[in-house]
Amino acid sequence: MKRMKHAGDVVLLFWRFVLGPSMLALMSSVAYGLTVDRVLAIVNNEVITLSDYKKQAAKNDADADREKVNEAYLRRMIEEKLILQEARKAGIDTTEKEISLSIEDFMKQIGISRQELEKRLTDEGTNMTEYRQLLKENIMSLKIIDKEVDAKVVVGAGDVRQFYETNKDLFLEAPEKVLIKAIYLKLSDNASVTEITDLKIKSLKIYDEIKKGALFDMIAMKYKEIQGEFERGMLIPVLDYKIFSMKEGEVSEPVWTKDGVYIIKAVKTFGKSYKPFETAREDIRQKLYERRREEKYNEWVKSLWERSSVSIR
Q: Mean pLDDT for each 10-residue chunk of the chain (313 residues)?
């Protein structure tokens, strides 16, 4: 919970508790000489004021329009307050030692001294006392999240294995490939029926020779030869379908395209290779944990909203 900075806050809370919501609007417009903050939300009898919002907005986004309230950001502030209230309700607290250790870790991580930290806080319009209070609330919130969310997320060995088998393509290291050689007989532009017929007879004759035992490489030397290693989808559909339906060492019947005819030999086939399960296991476990934690967290926060009194002004 943020500390109240203005006398108006005290007055506002007093009338909220004593006289109820009906007086709140009146007190907002008639301050009797006191500056009363505009109330943006009431969360289980705790208020979030415009000054609270501006202060948070300044810390998180220096360029934000702090006069215009962003509803999504306000809801996040409400959510943070609900979590902190739940921590207090559960009797969770933070020791001064925990706060000091957190500050020391922070300074060590970013490589600054205490004097430099205090200067930064001053430049941001705050001080070490307020900073320690903020850390205290953050640690309390983390503790209740750990208790109500993190501790209840379970990822079993079977879950990890099932994810690996079901989503195996996510762990693909090398795609399926085929090394081919092909005899290519080009079809001339605007070929006549006679030319097409002659090319068809020629291609069938070549195929027949190979089927009878002639060496593919020897025959290919007489014609234009194409060779290469291709992944699925790299060639036009008719060729792609053919080479990925062939067995290693197999020679295809003539395959016609609009440009000519191919007689293909599948020299070597390479199946897909995957990252081994043992290598991928920890990444999968972490992915599943994060996914389930997010689901559990959202369910828990939703339950906080449902059993709380929240009024957005």
A: 36 33 35 61 93 80 69 92 96 95 94 94 89 95 97 96 95 95 93 93 96 94 92 94 95 95 96 95 96 97 95 88
Q: Pull the structure tokens for residue 17.
A: 């508790």
Distance of alpha carbon 141 from alpha carbon 84, whole angstroms: 5
- Given CATH 3.10.50.40, say whether it is the number of domain 176-271: yes
Give whole-number Cα distances, 30 to 9, 36, 53, 311, in Å. Answer: 14, 9, 22, 21
Helix, coil or strand: residue 276: coil
Helix (H, G, I), strand (E, B) or coil at 170: helix
Q: Give the residue range(s) of CATH 3.10.50.40 domains in the chain.
A: 176-271
Distance in angstroms between the alpha carbons of the first and the last residue of the chain: 19
Phi, psi dihedral angles at 124 (to 5 degrees): -90, 5
